[in-house]
Amino acid sequence: MDSTGRDGAGRDGSSRKGAGRESRHLGIRIDRPVKDVYDYASDPANLPEWAHGLGGSIEEIDGQWVARSAPLGRVTVAFSPANEWGVLDHDVTLPSGQTVSNPVRVIADGPASEVVFTLRRQPETSDDEFRRDAASVTADLARLKSLLEAAGRP
Q1: How far is CA 34 from each of CA 20, 75, 80, 119, 141, rounded to the nearest angstrom?
Q2: Of 3, 81, 115, 130, which residue is most buried, by most CB within 10 angstroms?
Q3: What pLDDT is recorded for position 153?
Q4: Quick check: 37 pLDDT over 60?
Q5: How far apart are alpha carbons 150 and 154 in whole angstroms?
Q6: 47 CB contacts (<8 Å, ≥6 apart)?
Q7: What span, in angstroms and rounded, lies between the C-alpha atoms of 45 and 84?
Q8: Where do runs of H (alpha helix) occur along 12-126?
Q9: Handedness of CA 104, 30, 110, 84 (dihedral sign)
Q10: Which residues are CB-neighbours of 67 under 8 A, at least 6 positions away?
Q11: CA-closest candidate to residue 137, choices 15, 20, 21, 25
Q12: Count of other CB atoms within 10 angstroms of residue 25
């Protein structure tokens, strides 16, 4: 429910904007060791290969990673410091100045890995937009899996 006591949905159950924070955990198993997955995915220079949601190019400018995304415009991406726990959290700062924090983990699954991305619904995001965001992240994770499982990848 919102602050007015309504649940944010129309009488017909239509899209709810600003209906509250919701998270969706999107994961994929990758048949590669955690270190391989973490090392590849934590390198911002590799983002254009697998994270198409951020755009087709990225470059380091004055110590910041800047991506150019057709739907979003110029965004900056800042990863958490390198760590031994598989934490790939990253903040994406939009042209508006809004920063979206994205929790991501690489978790050991025997000799393989699981990558879990927590998609957080942003205020004013409709149900359809949230579904599209989830589909985009799922496609990015599938590309990451495909790239890392391909023969000869580090």
Answers
A1: 34, 28, 17, 21, 15
A2: 115
A3: 58
A4: yes
A5: 9
A6: 54, 58, 65, 67, 77
A7: 20
A8: 34-41, 47-50
A9: negative
A10: 47, 48, 54, 55, 57, 58, 74, 75, 76, 77
A11: 25
A12: 10
Average pLDDT, the chain: 84
The string of pLDDT tens digits covering residues 89-110 is 999 999 999 999 999 999 999 9
Phi, psi of 62 (to 5 degrees): 50, 45
| Residue 64 amino acid letter | Q
* Among the listed residues 63, 56, 57, the one whose alpha carbon sits nearest the alpha carbon of residue 78: 63
Quick one: tokens of 15?
């899209």
**Token pair for 76:** 């900056």
Torsion of CA 80, 81, 85, 89, to 10 degrees: 10
Output b/e per residue, 41-72; b: 16+ Cβ within 10 A.
bbebebbbebbebbbeebeeeeeebbbebeeb
User: Token match 């690489």: residue?
Assistant: 106
